[in-house]
Design brief:
The protein has 286 residues and is an all-alpha fold. The chain is built from eleven helices and no strands.
Amino acid sequence: MTTASRTTAVRIVLWAAVGLLVALLIVPGTEDGLRSALGRALAALRALGHGTLDVDPGFAMAMVVTAVTVPVPVLLAVVGRASRPGGVRQRAVVSCLLVLVLAAAAAVHADGRWDRFRDVATAGLVGVLLGSLLDAAVHARERAAHASVRSKRVAWTIAGLYGLLVVLVATWGTPVDGGIHPWLVRAIAAGQRLGAPSWLGYSAVEFTANVVFFAPFGFLAVLLLGARRWWVGMLGGFLVSCAIETTQALFLPARFASVDDVLANTSGAVLGVLLGVVVLGRARQA
């Protein structure tokens, strides 16, 4: 596919998004129809069992909004045919504005307009943040192609400690959050009273914690191997997570193995790879 054809395809996608936005604004019931269709799709995935998307429905919807908005900065880069790293910030700002407009459109026909706007905007802005990181990693990939001696030395030091932590957490006989569960629930309730999104419940915090827990895996893989082998961090994170969940299912009856944990851990590894590419690229540029 040529550059011109890719640009044309992206423009079609963006125009389709504009059409959806207009429909949300002027056609009552459009948003309810979308939410209903997404709800049926999520229910079908949950029916697979093994802890597949076993999260709060509100958080599942927020995950969909985040996933949809992640590509926006990269799509803007393709449309603008921009190659300047400085354009990353500009595209992030434009993407944030687009998300806020989308959130406002989604809230127009809602009963609790402010609550709907806050929930959609927060999930969408998280997607823009991740998409901007992807955009920055694309621009830094050439500079970060090879790991430096310094990055390898630092990575090996951290990797030893991190590996030990992963083994301890993975093989702990009881859920690692068991002792802090009551306090965590109270903290989440307090946050929602102060205006946190309604989807930010216990399942959201647990999923996010699993993402953050595996982010160092991908980050360290890039520091050790360079950006040319970015796939090692992603694939390695997936395989290690599968091994952990299998171990828990077979040998640790007090632990609950789930597909959601694999999804969260792998997402964390991907996030770490992107962050590693950006950091290594900037370090080699300095």
